[in-house]
Structure formats: structure tokens, C-alpha cells
Design a protein that fits this description.
74% of the residues lie in helices and 0% in strands. By secondary structure, it is an all-alpha fold. It has one domain. Helix 4 packs across helix 5 and helix 6 runs antiparallel to helix 7. The longest helix is centred in the C-terminal third of the chain and has 31 residues.
């Protein structure tokens, strides 16, 4: 990863809002990963998911991988992956609705609302990133201004002419 991206340097200023939002969600994934790995028992008790501590720990690993992916170069699929993870988390948390404890039931409802919000944000960011990087249907890329030469066609032509001239001089001197 580019050091300027981490430091808030010049690379940050050239990012679109959707890429900045994705990076923020990537860092949020690391925070969630720490919580899931460090306190699975407390999370399980809060949401009526006792006995699912190992599943919660695995969600920590999933969030860590999501954070790494979002902070990599392929951000759009990573954001869709985060959205898919949100769906899995919603499904798991919804099992906590079966609890008889009214406090846990309320916590589950609040947690489901938060997860639905994360799902919406992740999906919006992923869709925006995808639209920024996709050409319109039927739009062809124009490569007519490219020569394939590092310094352009005129520079390559003059270099080629100079090389031909040098090749002729030793032949003329010998003849």
C-alpha cells in the first residue's frame, strides 16, 4: 500500500469520496475484528447468542480479511464482499430474536438495525465504486493517442534515424 495513503498525503486528496468511504469502512472492519476476537463471550451474551462464541471469533477473522481486502487495490469486489458478510451477520444475529430475555431481544433489534445500515452503506459504496470504474455500454476505449514508445513516436523516430546514421558511418569509413 502507498505510504501517502496511510499518512493522508497527496494520494488521499486525489481519491473520490467513494474510495475514501471504502477505506474508512476497511479500517472499521479492523475495529470489529478486534472486538469479535477479544470479546466473543460478551458479544454472545449481549445478543442472546450463547454457545456461538467460536462463530463470533470466525466473524473476527472475516472482518480482518475484509479490512485487508478493502485497503488493497481491488476495492469494489472487497466492498461487495463486506456487504455479503453483513447479510451473514444479519442472519446469525436474527437467531437471537428467539430469546425470552427482553433486554437481549431489544439489543438484537438494535444490532439488526445497525447491520442493515452497514449493509446499505457498503452496498452504496460498492455500487458507486463500480460505476466509477465502468465504461458506458458500447463506449470503446480510444488508444489512438498512444504510440507504445516511452517518449512518444517523434522521439522514437529520431532515435531510430540517429541509430541508422551511426550504423552507416563505420560502413562508409571501411569502404
Amino acid at each position: 500500500m502507498n505510504a501517502a495513503t496511510l499518512s493522508g498525503g497527496p494520494a488521499d486528496r486525489s481519491m473520490t469520496w467513494s474510495l475514501r468511504a471504502a477505506r474508512l469502512m476497511g479500517w472499521a472492519s479492523f475495529g470489529l475484528a478486534v472486538a469479535f476476537v477479544a470479546a466473543p463471550g460478551r458479544i454472545a451474551r449481549t445478543f442472546g447468542l450463547e454457545g456461538k462464541e467460536n462463530l463470533i471469533r470466525s466473524f473476527g477473522a472475516q472482518e480482518a480479511m475484509a479490512g485487508i481486502s478493502v485497503l488493497s487495490t481491488e476495492v469494489t469486489p472487497a466492498m461487495w464482499s463486506r456487504a455479503a458478510g453483513d447479510v451473514i451477520h444479519i442472519g446469525t444475529l436474527a437467531t437471537g430474536l428467539r430469546t425470552d430475555d427482553s433486554r437481549q431481544h431489544r439489543n438484537v433489534v438494535v444490532g439488526l438495525a445497525a447491520l442493515a445500515g452497514f449493509l446499505l452503506v457498503d452496498s452504496l459504496i460498492a455500487a458507486k465504486l463500480g460505476s466509477e470504474r465502468t465504461r458506458s455500454r458500447g463506449e470503446a476505449r480510444d488508444y489512438s493517442g498512444r504510440s507504445g514508445f516511452p517518449k512518444g513516436r517523434p522521439s522514437a523516430a529520431s532515435a531510430s534515424a540517429a541509430e541508422r546514421q551511426q550504423a552507416r558511418q563505420p560502413a562508409m569509413a571501411a569502404g
